[in-house]
Structure formats: C-alpha cells, structure tokens
Protein: Ribonucleoside-diphosphate reductase
Amino acid sequence: MKLTLKQLDSTNVTYYDLNNEINIPVNGQIPLNKDKEALAAFLKENIEPNSMKFSSLEERFNYLIENDYLEKEFIEKYNFQFIKQLYSFLVEQNFTFKTFMAAYKFYAQYALKTNDNELYLESFIDRVAANALFFADGDEQLALTLADEIVHQRYQPATPSFLNAGRKRRGELVSCFLIQVTDDMNSIGRGINSALQLSRIGGGVGITLSNLRGAGAPIKNIQGAASGVVPVMKLLEDSFSYSNQLGQRQGAGVVYLNIFHPDVVAFLSAKKENADEKIRVKTLSLGLVVPDKFYELARNNEEMYLFDPWGVEREYGKPFSYIDITKEYDNLVANPNIPKKKVLARDLETEISKLQQESGYPYIINIDTANHNNPINGKIIMSNLCTEILQVQKPSIVNNTQNFDKLGTDISCNLGSTNIVNLMASPDFGNSVDAMVRALTYVTDHSEIDVVPSIQNGNKMSHTIGLGAMGLHAFFAKNHIFYGSEESIDFTNIYFMLLNYWTLQSSNKIAKERGVVFNDFEKSSYADGSYFNKYLEQDFQPKTTKVQAIFKDIFVPSKQDWEALKNAVIKDGLYHQNRLAVAPNGSISYINDTTASLHPIINRIEERQERKIGKIYYPAPYLSNDTIPYYQSAYGTDMRKVIDVYAAAQQHIDQGMSMTLFMRSTIPEGMYEWKNGKTNKMTTRDLTILRNYAHAKGIKSVYYVRTFTDDQNEVGANECESCVI
Structure:
C-alpha cells in the first residue's frame, strides 16, 4: 500500500496540538511533559508509518545506490562488514531527540526522502552514518570517531555538509562565498556572472564594491561620468533574485562598501523604506567596512573626507580596498590628485544608527581590528553574508575576453560547529576537535568551485576551515551561570582558548603527515612564532572557583604546552590558513537541542511560525525551575554583557563571529545608565554607543541589529539560510 507523508496534514495527527499546549501554563508551571508527548506522537504517527522498511543493511544501501539516492563511490571505500560495525556502534548509543522541534526539523529539512516526497529513506542515525563514512574518506578509525562525535552531538557539520554528504544528487558542501570586484567593466561583468553562478549552486555570496569609482567620477576615453555603486547593487540584487535554485530559495547576497567611499550615503540610502524604487534594494544585505579612523573622527566631531577609489588607485597603484585608510588618511587628504568630498563624521554615524533601527542593516566590519589581529600575510578587505569569515584576498585582473590575466584569491567557507554542552562532556576534548578538523579538511580538499576560478584558487592555496560553537547560553543555564557574569566570561575565555589550541595541534599534525602547509605560511606570524606570544606572556587558566571546577578534569594548556606547540608549528607548519569562525545557527541548533551560537536566547519558550503548519513551540534546553533565572531574554539583556562575552571568545578566534545586537524600542528601566533622566525610547545614540563599545572591546564585526518593537514585532530579524550552520 502506498503511504503518504502526513507531516503537512494537521487534521489526522495529535503532535501539533500537544506541542502547542506547552504555551498554556498549568498551575503557573510550563507543562514541558507535553513536548515529550508531542515528540512521541510525531515519531509514532508520522515517522514510523512513513519510513521505507528494508530487510537488511545491504538491501538498504543497494536500493539507495541503484536508485541514485546515495553515491556508491564513498561506500565502496569500506568493507561492508565495517559499515555493519559502524551501524552497530551507532545503534548502541541509543540516540533520541529531546524535543518535538528537533525531530520535526530533522525530518522536514534534512532526512533523505523518496523522489515523490512520500517516504522517508533515512533516520538521524542513517544521516550520521552517511556523514561519518563520507568525511572519513575510507579511514575506518576516523569514520568511527566521527560517528561518535556526531551522534553524541558534540560536532555538527554545517547545513550544506550535513544535508548533502553522500547524496548522489546534491548541492555543494560549502556554506558561502566572498568575491571582490575591481574598478573596471570586465571585473564588474565577471563579478555579476560569479554571483549568478554561486547563487545557483547554493550558499550566500558576499561582494565588496569598495574598489569601484564613485558616481560622477571620470571614465577614461569616454565623455561622461561613472554611475557609482548603486546601479551595480541593483544588478546584483536582480542576479540573486533570478538565480534562486529553481525557486527553492531566495538567492542571498551582501554588498560591502568602505565607509570612506564617496558613495557611502547613497549606498545606505538604497536600503531605506522610503527610497525611490529606482535605487532601492529590498533583498540585498548591506555591510560597511569601517577603519579605526572613522571612530576617531566621529569621537572628535570632525569632518571626514571621502576619497574616490579611481584617484587613490592611480596614486597608490593598488585597489582602494588595499589602502590602510587609518595610516594614510592625512596623506590622502593632503594629496591634490585624489578627488574627495567632505561630510560630518557624526552625521554619517547617525545615519548608520537610523538605518539599523529601521532595517537591522548595515553590518559593521571593524577592518583595522581584523587586520591588526590577523596572523596571515596579506590584507582582509571584507566579510561574508553573516560577518564571521575574515580572510585575506588578492585581486584578479580580468581581460576583455572575461578571462584572467592575473588570477587572484577569493574565498569559500567550510563551516562546522561544536555543541558546547556536549563537547564539555567529551571523554577526550582534543581527540574530538581533531576529528572535527579532519572532517572539515575533507570539505576544503574536495571543494572544486570551478565556475569561479578565483574562489577555486583561493581554496586550493589556503585550505581554510571555520570551526565554531553553539549552545553557550544553554551551558550557562545548565551550570547556573548568569550570561555576562565574571564566570561566564571566564568560561568563554578558556573554552575558545582550548578550541584554538586543539585546532592548531590538528592542523600542525595534518601538515606534518602530508608535508604540506598553506600558501605563504613562511610569511605568517605562525612561522616566526610571534603569534604565540600572548599565550607565553600570560597564563590562560580558569580564574573563578566555579569555572575551575568545570575544567577540573579537562586539560588546560600551560605556558609550557604552548611553547611546545609553538616549536612544533615553526618546525612543521600548519595545513590550514584559517581555522575558527563562529557562524549564526538556524534550524540545526534545534536538532542539536541547544541554543543558537553564542548569544542569549530570545524566549524561554520560543515560538516558530512554520510554513503551512502554523506555530511550533520550542522550550529552552534544560529548562526547569532551577534554570529559569539564568534564561534571561536577549531583549532584556544589557548588550554590553553580550559584547563582553563575545570579546572573550574573539581574542582566540582567527576569523570573526556573527554577533547580533538585540534592542527594544522601549529600553527597560535602568539597563543603560546614559538613559537615566532621558527618554526610555531607543535612539540612534544608543546604537552609536554600543558600536563604539564593541570596537573598543576588540570585536571584529557586528551582524544584525534586531529590534523588538512596542507592537511585538521584530525588525532586522531575517536569517541567512546559507551560513546558519
């Protein structure tokens, strides 16, 4: 008999109603048992009757290979007896989803289904096995270790990797891309084509337009003037809208512009709700590249000069993005050959805050902070759609045939995430991280984005990965730690120091095993050992009594351990140019039954509006009478506490973090001392102060500003489905 999936038919099932009862208090208590009942009902009413049954593991794999559901190549790298052994191990782990939301999200978005979408072809265990076998690439011990890490949810591959691993008909394994455009029509044309191609194969695309000449600038051998960056933004937005994977999702892109670019005001205005339709960009995200000099000029209430990139490139012989504005500012101002205009720095600062209130944009990249802490030879000039990727790039030169006279380096993002609560319970923290690094290394080694040669070239030379973390607030609540407290900062500091230490160890081991290091390793501060100075000059050990107890049975490296690692890296190098990045987390954090990324939760019982379904409720992990006090909403939290926690992590992370600021239209009484005696409504000044605080604390990037309005709506709450691991 042919069975039909009932996941979208709410009339014949009980699990939606049971889940919705969580939101109805009983005697003043949250009835969490109703979610357990919903989970059980979902598995019984939906999953069991709608899953294809097989008489044996061999029959299952033969069917999936013969019908083009799984690739046979990665399966054939193993003796089938080992695959049986792997499955026996996974079954013994007794994995169970903890919440209805976790199971629902997995089966709705990740589980392999028949072509007619009528039957499930895999369980969570099956998806774990496919990931372990695929990323281990024939290494049986690594496959077992990865299966252990993923089934215990210590490691979560990024959505594209977790979803596509092993599938015969699949998208790319990587999450997002970064490309730059230089100041000529060939490069612009190539950039638009790249945006089309990259959006087609999946993932968000970041593009910097900082190098393009401003509106009104002269064009060589042509009577007339340049149109500036806004028309290019419109072309890119149309490209992303068109290239949307056959309508399966909206193409996603972000454009970055240096704040000292002459088109910066027009750039920001294009995102305003009341902008003319000819210039307004609705779906394109905006980001500003902000050098330290801007903060100085705004602080001193000075005028700031905006410099036209074509004049700067003519004088300096390199694209505008590669000029150190902070260092060269006075020289740029004094140079009569460089066209420039003036604005008041604080007026521009206010415009940024106004737009963040209205839309959540622009993202902010503190580019000097990123480069000052960059151990790699070269210059970081931009970020990605979620602001956590910060890697060096080199410009390309494109000729009239749209080919490369000089092939530069652009970026693809190979991401994964640790689940903090579960990794802290690992029997071997270092071994767990090593397996994660090796899984991510498989992705970077096998990524071939040949439609954009500059990305292919950059990946081939740098072998970059981005291991991050989710579940920080869940860990705090479970351990009775208040978000933003001294203990929370102490824990965050040590946890990310450990991630840094162990990823360095793994990268060094892989370099030694293969005899290969990333390009220009010898020019990095890893090669001369100077990168390790901060770990040799201060002792990174837990300071508070509670955090000392938490790490009592976990190895925390001493100065001597860092000295040994330094010597090993100098001797044998590193395989990966970059290793760490903290992305935002979307549906995958629900499957992990944890909180997203490093930020505080929004609600103790989160309400999700699912298409065609209605509302689904998700209780915060480990929610109980004991943990409720530690689960304060992000909207009720002083954002300086969030910045402090992120800053503790940032000092150990070679790339960036997707740090969101959560604001209320009406600020809670007493939250910010500068509001005392003044209006309790959020103002542009509030956002300006917080951006400056983040900059002072060493934060490299600020992602969305999300505002909870007085009419219970959220502004700036769009999610990037590409990088939300």
Q: What stands out?
A: The longest strand covers residues 253-258.
